[in-house]
Specification:
- The structure holds two protein chains of two kinds.
- By secondary structure, chain A is α+β, with helices and mostly antiparallel strands.
- Chain A has one domain: Orthogonal Bundle (Cytochrome-c3 Hydrogenase, chain B).
- Chain A is built from 16 helices and eight strands.
- In chain A, strands 1-2-3 form a three-stranded antiparallel β-sheet. Chain A has a three-stranded antiparallel β-sheet with strand order 6-7-8. In chain A, strands 4-5 form a two-stranded antiparallel ribbon.
- In chain A, strand 6 and strand 7 form a beta hairpin.
- In chain A, helix 4 packs antiparallel against helix 5.
- The longest helix of chain A is centred in the first third of the chain and has 29 residues.
- Chain A is globular and about 65 Å long.
- By secondary structure, chain B is of the alpha/beta class.
- Chain B has a single domain, classed as Rossmann fold, CATH 3.40.50.
- Helices cover about 35% and strands about 15% of the residues of chain B.
- Chain B contains five helices and five strands.
- The longest helix of chain B is centred in the C-terminal third of the chain and has 14 residues.
- Chain B is globular, with a radius of gyration of 14 Å.
- Classes of the chains: A alpha+beta, B alpha/beta.
């Protein structure tokens, strides 16, 4: 017999409003319905009412956890549109902040995942070592979150020479603690039992649902904007892409933990090789045209599109956040597991509903479209049109 | 009875967290003050899972058309008297989201708010100070 277990919208499990309907048979989850939209604030509508330089402050507030990723992608998009290359020093600064943000976001997820499986010790310990990182942000940029470091044509603030040792010192601490967490989490038999072979997302499904970020890399699908289409300082540093084949929650956790090590490596190299010079190219006007910007946020690829008509405001600004695709993959990942695992599986993609709520997807009836179905529909439509034009 | 409840409120307020349409930052900072550096559980402040157990509501984010009825329902379920603490600039005023078609204004238009803690996001120290001030007001 089928029953529905509603989760949300104001559920203590996750701090954001979202609504899941778990359709269960006994203990087993057989289907999932996702209902979002509680968080829609209309960023794409507000953006064309602001000037080019004001928009980073708005897109920063799309999501507080990736508050560097959205302005980063936006700034890359506008620079693409205006054909501006920022000075090398600013590129290194942006890369450093982007990577530090990845560490803070992955730690946040790790802590919450620990909380979801009832290991509050993991939560407390991980967040304890996340705290000095927020202090570092405050030191460099004046705010613990919402850093406002990205600016069209460069960076808004410089990293001072005397702050370098403090960053290095934190990285040393983090390297040690990250090794500890990795060992603790991989060695603990209970955590392993809870995470291993739970919420498996196969590589085919990962591709069909177009997931990105650690969710894709945990399923053996190597996709990373930093490697595939390097920007700023990412092609000047040496680092590895972490990919695991299993597709379960443990694989996603491993990807995130090991990515923190890679981020530490990137930040170290950036600090070592950071060139001197100005941090900003002056951009006087944005010519008519369009531009795209892609940045690998902690959760996956953030995509921004802007169109300009030569005025001081964007005409159109489109945002696509990684969680938009990742959340949809929950439908296949959660199917067949027990209700007790559902909380963890739903959280394993590191969902960010604030980022996601740009567009509404309306599903009518029971029909769900995978990438292949959509392609098929598209092909059918072309065929139909072909027939019509033949007549 | 009212006084007894107020006295009870003062000792160890249990809080329920209502995130209307936040950007997550205030919410993360609220969780942050439970973690070792600030550790407000020392003072008996506990995040609870149901508004029916709560003495105070921590509201964050702006209100929009879809979540207003839900937020009002959560407020209705909270036993009165209760404290409503608006955390973050968005909860105090829509600010940057003012022009949006979906954002329908600050909390105090719909529910009585006791304390406003502005900031984007407010620092954990500021949140703790705000809660202390709210308790002193009782």
């Amino acid at each position: 017999m089928r029953r529905v277990v509603p989760i949300g919208p104001y559920h203590p499990l996750q701090e954001e409003p979202e609504f899941f309907k778990l359709i269960v048979e006994g203990e087993k989850v057989v289907d999932l319905e996702i209902n979002i939209g509680y968080n829609h604030r209309g960023h794409e509508f507000i953006s064309p009412t602001l000037t080019w330089d004001q928009v980073p402050f708005l897109v920063e507030r799309i999501c507080g956890i990736c508050s560097d990723s959205h302005p980063y992608a936006y700034v890359l998009a506008v620079e693409d549109c205006a054909h501006v290359t920022p000075p090398p020093r600013s590129q290194y600064i942006r890369t450093i902040i982007g990577e530090l943000e990845r560490i803070h976001s992955h730690y946040l997820w790790l802590g919450l995942a620990g909380h979801f499986i009832g290991y509050n010790t993991v939560w407390m310990w991980v967040w304890r070592y996340r705290e000095p990182l927020l202090d570092l942000f405050e030191l460099i940029m004046g705010n613990r979150n919402h850093y406002a470091i990205n600016k069209i044509g460069g960076a808004r603030r410089d990293i001072r020479k005397e702050d370098f040792p403090k960053i290095e010192k934190y990285l040393d601490l983090l390297e040690e603690k990250n090794a500890m967490f990795t060992k603790a989490i991989l060695d603990d038999p209970v955590i392993r039992a809870r995470l291993e072979d739970v919420g498996v997302l196969s590589k085919e499904d990962a591709i069909a649902y177009a997931v990105t970020g650690p969710t894709a890399r945990g399923s053996g699908y190597a996709i990373d904007v930093r490697k595939d289409d390097p920007y700023d300082a990412y092609d000047k540093v040496d680092w590895n892409e972490i990919v695991f084949e299993e597709g379960d929650v443990l694989a996603k956790a491993k990807v995130r933990l090991l990515e923190c090590d890679e981020s530490i490596k990137i930040v170290r190299q950036c600090l070592k090789n950071m060139p001197e010079g100005s941090i900003e190219t002056r951009v006087d006007e944005i010519p008519p045209g369009e531009g795209i910007g892609r940045h690998e946020a902690p959760r996956g690829e953030v995509f921004h599109y802007v169109r300009s008509n030569g005025s001081n405001m964007p005409v159109r600004h489109k945002v696509r956040a990684p969680s938009f695709m990742n959340i949809a993959s929950n439908v296949v990942a959660v199917r067949g597991y027990s209700i007790a695992d559902a909380a963890l599986v739903l959280a394993s993609v590191d969902p960010c509903y604030c980022c996601t709520e740009r567009t509404f997807v309306y599903q009518s009836g029971k029909k769900k479209y995978s990438g292949q179905d959509l392609l098929k529909l598209s092909w059918e439509k072309t065929e139909k049109l072909k027939r019509r034009y033949k007549k | 009875m009212g006084n007894a409840k107020l006295w009870g409120l003062k000792k160890s307020p249990w809080v329920f967290h209502v995130a209307a349409a936040p950007c997550n930052n205030c919410d993360i900072e609220i969780l942050d003050i439970l973690t070792p550096r600030w550790d407000v559980e020392r003072f008996g402040i506990v995040l609870v899972g149901s508004p029916r157990h709560a003495d105070a509501l921590l509201v964050t984010g702006v209100l929009n058309r879809k979540n207003l009825p839900r937020v009002l329902e959560v407020y209705r379920q909270t036993p009165k008297p209760c404290l409503v603490i608006a955390i973050g600039a968005c909860a105090c005023h829509p600010n940057i989201f003012q022009p949006s078609y979906n954002v329908i204004g600050p909390y105090d238009k719909y529910i009585p708010v006791d304390v406003y803690i502005p900031g984007c996001p407010p620092k954990p120290e500021a949140i703790i100070l705000g809660v202390v001030k709210a308790l002193q007001r009782l």
